[in-house]
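Reviewers of the previous submission asked for a worked example of the structure-prediction workflow described in the proposal, so we include one complete record here. The input consisted solely of the amino acid sequence. No template or homolog information was supplied to the procedure at any stage.
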Amino acid sequence: MNFRHLGSSGLMVSEISYGNWLTHGSQVEEVAALACVRAALDEGITTFDTADVYAATRAEEVLGRALQGQRREGLEIFTKVYWPTGPGPNDRGLSRKHILESINGSLRRLKTDYVDLYQAHRYDTETPLEETMQAFADVVRQGKALYIGVSEWTAEQIRAGVAMAKQLGFQLISSQPQYSMLWRVIEGEVIPASQELGVGQIVWSPIAQGVLTGKYKPGQKPPEGSRATDDKGGSRFIQRFMTDDVLTRVQQLKPVADGVGLSLAQLAVAWVLQNPNVSSAIIGASRPDQVKENVKAAGVKLSGDVMKKIDELLGPIVERDPARTRQGAPEKRP
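From that input alone, the workflow returned the following structure tokens.
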């Protein structure tokens, strides 16, 4: 496993991190989830990402149990706050009340005294940024989080957040956006702003919800038990990639992957890691062997010719519009 700085901070993270969105407490039974975490640890992954909303808080509980007995100083544990975790109007968003209550709940479920990174899971249009950032500053000063990050914020929002964090005396060091060969909306604005500000990307869905594994074939039904057949939420997120044009072009990547001795999934993870602003790529898994295979992308260097060939093959199906970040964000709290 290789390690990278998270943004311009001194914090080192494994360049492949383990995330449990849509798996722990939901798609995958706990025994399998624990086996996946053990596989991640065995492969040298030290960075684990979750969120209070995943599986209605159960994902944090599963991860907390899975990491029990590990040396805490040897781990980087990340979680997030924003989406609803209860029925009340204050059980969501980035108000001072919700942030300060949510960090306590996350720490209890994760069985730890602090998280290494606490992230704003979306931008809250209904709370003044000053209130949100002051609450994060207090969380840091209380020792409950070491660093602060954001997820799916626009370049403009990141700029404002970094500036206010500096005024309040803490570091906003990371952004967690979707990023893959197929979804490159952060390249136009978010990455240039982040490079300027010292913010690193922790990218999710580098395999495009499994589409870039090549297991989905054009004109064929999705394999049983795959993400595309998951009625607990997985199928909803993958649908935008499930067109014959996308699936056909993904199959055309197979010779490229073969040429560099990688599987399609490994090629996809290696591709995002070529971007110098990417600190870590999050992988999920429902089986330990998936973890063991995907970590082989660590340390892979792809040549310019390979990167160019990927661009040629994927061509017009790549989404690049920076506006998609703002379009995908809630206008009001859910």
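The chain has one domain: 3-208+273-300+319-327. We consider this example representative of the routine output the project will generate in years two and three.
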